[in-house]
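Late entry, evening session. Most of the bench is empty. Finally got around to the prediction I had been postponing all week. Sequence below, unchanged from the version circulated by S.P.
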Amino acid sequence: MKKSAESVSDLPVSVAEENKAEGESRKPADLAALRERIDQINRQLLELMAERARLAVEIGHLKDANGAEVYQPVREQEILERLAQLNPGPLNSEHIRRIFTEIISACRSLERRVRVAFLGPEYSYTHLAAVNRFGSSAEFVAAESIAGVFAAIGAGQADLGVVPVENSTEGSVTLTLDLLIDTPLQIVGELMLAVRHALLSLSGERARIRKIIAHQQSLGQCRNYLAANFPHCVHESVASNSLAAKMAAADPSAAAIASAQAAAPYGLRIVADGIQDMAQNITRFLVIGREGVARSGADKTTLLFAMPEKVGALNAALTIFARKSINLSMIQSRPQRSRPWEYVFIVDLKGHREDPPMREALAALERKALFIKVLGSYPEGRPAD
């Protein structure tokens, strides 16, 4: 009859103790060796980052000599996409993007800190989107309104601005669209941010809440949740969710809809998190600046135009793009303030204004339209994670 496998308790005491001692001595030795290897890699990374920073300084001198912009969105996107493709794991592509966004941001700041205006105060979703794009080494300039972001760039107080333009639940931010009609600024980039709303108050107690403060779009994005959980509360619409958090910090009976990241800076507590009605709640932001950007090979063009008031005029305009196999991803109409009951159209098109098919389509549209204005051609934003 076969004997069953011996357990440690079946072994002689001296052998069991010897095995136990051997295991204990091996684990710390392995851990120490791994930590030493990590320390070596950290030193190598530090040396490589220092070399990268020195090269960035040299590039900065060349940009100054040639009058080139410090912020190069096409180049930065190329770097991040290439690194994502080369990524061997186990870090995922989003980890790699965040790490290198900060490395690029720090090195860019050695050339010159880019000043980025955003709809503030801090910890608004626009602020979070701006940090996500430019890294924490940029200089961020808070504006009290979307119009204030445009004005800050026009006045030379900022180089670039980040403004919300569209939400997957509530649709377009019409104020941004209206400002784009009149501005001389260009769209130079876009980014998508997955928006997760939290309800914040001073006490964190549901029973004490009598008023909900938020941006109008956020109130709409949480409409069903608020109706089911706080039907007795009045709603107050303000310019931004971070302003709502600031106001809630001064009113014990109020709660703000804002990001969970806004709680601690404003001395608030999280009453509930993830209160948006749709799990996939994504906001699209535009980056605006004074100068256009070159082709990246994966671009989008935003165009403004007006057509004569006659049957089939809009269809004729859109047919031009269809014939050139140019995909149209968005169309909005906005009233012409100077001409009641007449409209301008804003469209997003796949491709850059310098692509031959796009050039030909724009030339053909110009012959039919009352006027056209290219608001910008820019690298297409990556989907929110």
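Two things to note before I forget:
Residues 35-112 form a domain with the Chorismate Mutase Domain, subunit A fold (CATH 1.20.59.10).
Residues 1-12 have pLDDT under 50 and may be disordered.
Will write this up properly tomorrow.
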